[in-house]
Write the structure tokens for this entry.
Amino acid sequence: MPETNQQNQGKPPKKKQPIDNALKYSGIAFTLAATLMAGAFIGQKLDAYFQLDRPYLTALITLLALFAGFYLSLKDLLFKK
């Protein structure tokens, strides 16, 4: 380990490439979209199973999935290096 530290002392750190940022943000968008679609699908299946007149469970579970997607997206955005 000390050998690698001595080699990197004179060199400036590498800058992140723009492609890394694009992949990071597209991954966050995909996570949010996937959670919303999964919540809507599960809600529709539960509404059909319980034979509800109005899509109460679809709305409820989609909203919960929205909050979960925002949580996952913000967690990735703020806490990953």
